Amino acid sequence: MRTSRSATGVAAFAAAAVLLAGCSSSGGKDSEEKPEEAGGGKVSGPRLTIAMVTHSGKGDAFWDIVQKGAKAAAAKDNVEFLYASDDQAKEQAALVQSYIDKKVDGIVVTLAKPEAMKDVLGKAKTAGIPVITINSGGQFAKEYGALNHVGQDESVAGEAVGAELEQRGRKKALCVIHEQGNVSLEERCAGVKKAFGGDTENINVPGTDMPQTQSQIAAKLQATEDIDTIVTLNAGIAEAAIKAKGDAGSEAEVSTFDLNEAVTEQMKAKEIVFAVDQQPYLQGYLAVDGLWLYRNNLNVIGGGQQVLTGPAIVTEKDVAQLEKLTKNGTR
């Protein structure tokens, strides 16, 4: 498992933050005598309510992992955790507004289509509700009043993929964008193109329609026979690309962003050559824990800067370590 050099420092800090939080709530005489200093678990203060609103989530294994991390932190911190998602930016903003109206104690939100979220996050700030952004649109977090952003730098992640493709001797890459207008997906493909010495071509597919996505990728592979590598931007699209490759009779390698049980099995079967792990569990965990820390002690993880949770390149060599964790739904 290889972590991109530019992400290593802050990612290590994020991991350390989780480790410290876990130690502080593990019991013992000190934690029993001073629950308010325990960092979570048996806190003596009021129960907080923290809401998370994402741009995707229904039936998506990635967001299940994010929620699992968030729920683990919520259980430790005596937090009521609320979750909602909508793939339409306008509806996502409306969900955030509904939680502002409920006067929750903190909000976690994604910024896949940042402009649609700008006004409502301004309303959260006016209402005195702290916000942490996760996963996408990190470059807008500070401008929109968030405490910080937890996720990977998408440009850096794309460059890590481009460098990996270069190292593997690939010549022509197809980068599959499954949600038009999502700034993070566009940054990933741009990063690939920047670091890859070969040619990179993007294709937009309807990510909510897997048969159509598979068909469009297959058609592109048949029309452009020199494509020797396919980069997908989430695990579900990777499965469609594997099937499309078979339909087209293509020998192109498949790599993907994001890791889950299916991707681990596909790497084991040599259907996927590598994946980019951005640690979604950590994104959910740190966001909820960060809001708890802020509400109780005015702590801001990362000093207001982005807290990087990736990227890390994982390959078949890492499968043995990851199989149990991906089956548990935490990686």
UniProtKB/TrEMBL annotation:
Claim: Signal is one of the keywords in the record = yes
Q: By its UniProt entry, which InterPro entries does this protein fall under?
A: Bact_Solute-Bind_Prot2, Peripla_BP_I, SBP_2_dom
Q: Where is this region: Disordered?
A: 26-45
Query: Where does the secretion signal sit in this chain?
Result: 1-21
Q: What Gene3D superfamilies does the annotation carry? A: 3.40.50.2300
Residues in Periplasmic binding protein domain copies: 50-291
Query: Bias category Basic and acidic residues: which stretches?
Result: 29-39
Q: Does the keyword Signal apply?
A: yes
Protein's cellular compartments: Cell envelope
UniProt keywords, alphabetically: Signal
Give the similarity note.
Answer: Belongs to the bacterial solute-binding protein 2 family.
Q: What is this protein called?
A: Substrate-binding domain-containing protein
